[in-house]
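Re: How this chain folds, sequence and tokenised backbone to follow
Notation: Tokens come from a learned vocabulary of local backbone shapes, not from coordinates.
Start of record: The labelled sequence and token lines come straight after this line.
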Amino acid sequence: MQPHFYATSGFDRMAHFRDDDEKMENRLKADDCLFVPVWNDRVFTSKDRTTPRYFSYAELDALDLQSPQMIYLGQSHKGQTLAAVDISAIEPLDEQDWFDDHLSCVDLRGAGLSLSADDASIIAYAQTLLRWHKDAKFCGRCGTRTTSKSAGHARRCSNDDCKTEHFPRINPAVIMLVEYEGRVLLASNPNFPEKLRSILAGFVEPGESLEQAVAREVWEEVGLEIENIRYHSSQPWPFSSSIMLGYTVTAKTEAMTVNKEELSEADWYTPADIAKAVDEEVLGLPRVDSIARAILDDWIKGNT
């Protein structure tokens, strides 16, 4: 099975090197090392957003940043050393110096659909880790400042009486396609763009299994009891630092009670209903880089 968008493929994270400071320094300063620059959660691409713009160590050094956060990412399938660097200290980002007809600084959510799956996954990996570093500057146990460790893959409390180690936060969420007698449940919530419909999703709560989370979310949102919970696949989702765990389930009945605090509407659709509504532009489907779309597309193929 092909990995979803934002899931790194053909990529060696070289985790066994992360705690060797000398090797890490040599790798980051090597001529073939490429840095993924991130500026206030924005990334750099070509003007048409199809190609990422990486920095060499020499280009990064020329920016004269004071100890920017760097993270060793690993080695690409092309044999290139890749790292991430936070250049948010550059304020303001002068358009005259930085931008021309060949360069853009964009939000990954807008660029992801134009990039290749491999490029999008590497940029998402870099952006997610750099965002976590910004959020984890202080120890959650004692409040003391933390320092970067393991080539940027951990932080440690600088209080000698604490020394708690902190690791990147990942928020687990379940996303599930609910079907009943050849129809699929599609819903919208108040935050969706007009016409957009998708499958159901929600975060996993402490003390519950993934299957329990699937059943709870479906019950809370549309009042349906389900069965035949089947795992589909998973996807890292960088926009909320989540791991999306995908399932398909069968409803025991079609009669639902829509929770208006969670959803604005929900309804059942056959594959023909979906095709007709999309063709008439009265229905929008999830982004093509999302696991929601992948699960839905697989269901449609299996039911037509």
Observations:
- Residues 186 and 198 are 5 Å apart (CA to CA).
- The chain is about 25% helix and 30% strand.
- The domain at 15-133 is CATH 3.90.79 (Nucleoside Triphosphate Pyrophosphohydrolase).
